[in-house]
């Protein structure tokens, strides 16, 4: 009963501030997926997978002249992952997705502290990864400046977990700074960056200078050992340019990486360049075409020339089937992605997108093969009163190089590699 009284008290407090500065909204987003080659080539002997996962969020905000406060809690669960009478703590998907305060410092300056989603430009290097049910966040401190059409951000993060730190030589566990979380997916020990953007109306340009520090480790008897392993630092620098004039639009990315990956793997000559053109042929038809080139690994032992787009919304790029740079392809042959698309406005509440992408390696595979294949993506959206329905279908037409890259022989692979999904999106605004 005590919990019920607390909840009633919280709701009463929410209503008290509802007139102006308090907001309360939510999200309910179940998505069912049929996976028959999503992420990689599926062998003919394997059975396609089908599952439904749901993201539930409750978001609160409170704004004053001095500061803004925001809290977002979420749970992500796959239907059927828990038994009927649930065991306490049988999964850890419930989490605080965002919890931050943005403090007004005056004269255009502010500081944003806490767990937050960091997203810039087209989300190529830093993005919220909203497609993934869990999303992406950072525990960071930002110093921000904004005046007219100019934006300047400084970002800082230092990650630590004393609870999981191994004891040092003196037997103490809460000293030192080894970061023992899994370094997969470029999880960093520390991060610093500067982001600047200027908008001139039809043209805008931004610069990003990002430094990530990774905890090195040794492997002893199959176990990771962190003490005394040191750190590696990777630098990513580049620009995003955007131009729009009438029905025509153009966007370009150019980034380089240098420094070291985890365990002092030297990064030399790594780059990403991309250009996308759009044209609104009519009020109901939009066309697009583009190319992206991402460098691959041409180095020897202890070094690489492969670029990785780090903390971007990578599902948005290089095909929706996630064959590249979504937990994979991190130190491989790179990518050349040439694509065309068409967007159709079917009605005031519905649209259809069709996109075709041709993939090849920036480097050759060991066999000398370069062509990887062609993917076709189709996405349909329909808005209803208070909710939306989104559905998609994708199919990969693999070339010989793709079978080699994914280590599945053509004879053993399923004849059809495809993926289909349907998603319901409800975002209620309880207090606005």
In short:
This protein has helices at 2-16, 400-405, and strands at 22-36, 49-63, 67-78, 95-106, 109-116, 138-147, 150-158, 190-199, 203-215, 218-220, 223-225, 231-245, 248-261, 265-282, 285-294, 303-304, 335-345, 350-360, 371-384, 387-398, 417-426, 429-431.
Which labels suit this protein?
Porin; 432 residues; mainly beta; 5% helix
Structure description:
The chain has 432 residues and is mostly beta strands. The chain has a single domain (23-431), classed as Porin, CATH 2.40.160. Helix content is 5%, strand content 53%. The chain is built from 2 helices and 22 strands. The protein has helices at 2-16, 400-405; strands at residues 22-36, 49-63, 67-78, 95-106, 109-116, 138-147, 150-158, 190-199, 203-215, 218-220, 223-225, 231-245, 248-261, 265-282, 285-294, 303-304, 335-345, 350-360, 371-384, 387-398, 417-426, 429-431. The model has no long low-confidence stretch (mean pLDDT 91).
Give the number of DSSP strands.
Answer: 22
The topology string of helices and strands comes to: HEEEEEEEEEEEEEEEEEEEEHEE
CATH class equals Mainly Beta
Give the mean pLDDT: 91
Structural class: mainly beta
Oligomer type: single chain
SSE topology sketch:
Layout: H1 2-16, E1 22-36, E2 49-63, E3 67-78, E4 95-106, E5 109-116, E6 138-147, E7 150-158, E8 190-199, E9 203-215, E10 218-220, E11 223-225, E12 231-245, E13 248-261, E14 265-282, E15 285-294, E16 303-304, E17 335-345, E18 350-360, E19 371-384, E20 387-398, H2 400-405, E21 417-426, E22 429-431
Parallel strand pairs: 14-16
Antiparallel strand pairs: 1-2, 1-21, 1-22, 2-3, 3-4, 4-5, 5-6, 6-7, 7-8, 8-9, 9-12, 10-11, 12-13, 13-14, 14-15, 15-17, 17-18, 18-19, 19-20, 20-21
